[in-house]
């Protein structure tokens, strides 16, 4: 399940790129170029690409911070759930928390794919998507380790 969550951002990057190149570009490209010429003539393709690339580089740092926050929150939620009730949290609660908290490092990864659509370079986007995917996998290992620590009967649930 964690693997499916982890590969969702790279899959989104591929689908978004295919749609942009083969569907949206031919359909809306001329219209957007004309509107930009009317309303924002100072924005050239180079300026937009530079801003998108810089934003993608910034999002790498945001993804690292978000990933660390996501891992810390997952550990805190697991500890808090066991401390509040005085018993071990159920595997379902851990999995639910895991599904929710894996979105924290994925949001900057998804935003970086929009930078590619805005004309940014591919390298920072791929790095950001890779970092995002790595943090989701780490969160999955933390969650699975917590479930395994509960014992074999709980892990089978």
Automatic annotation (TrEMBL):
Name of the protein this chain belongs to: ABC transmembrane type-1 domain-containing protein
Keywords on record: Membrane, Transmembrane, Transmembrane helix
The species this protein was found in: Enhygromyxa salina
Membrane is among the record's keywords: yes
Ranges that cross the membrane: 56-78
Domain of life: Bacteria
């Amino acid at each position: 399940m964690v693997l499916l969550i982890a590969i969702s951002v790279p899959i989104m990057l591929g689908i978004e790129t295919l749609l942009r190149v083969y569907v949206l570009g031919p359909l809306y490209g001329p219209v957007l170029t004309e509107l930009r010429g009317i309303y924002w003539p100072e924005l050239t393709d180079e300026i937009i690409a530079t801003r998108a690339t810089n934003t993608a580089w910034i999002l790498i740092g945001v993804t690292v911070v978000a990933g660390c926050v996501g891992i810390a929150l997952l550990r805190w939620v697991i500890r808090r759930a066991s401390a509040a009730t005085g018993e071990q949290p159920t595997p379902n609660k851990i999995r639910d928390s895991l599904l929710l908290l894996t979105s924290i490092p994925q949001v900057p990864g998804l935003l970086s794919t929009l930078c590619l659509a805005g004309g940014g370079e591919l390298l920072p986007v791929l790095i950001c998507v890779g970092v995002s995917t790595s943090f989701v996998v780490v969160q999955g290992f933390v969650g699975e380790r917590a479930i395994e620590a509960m014992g074999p009967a709980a892990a089978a649930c």
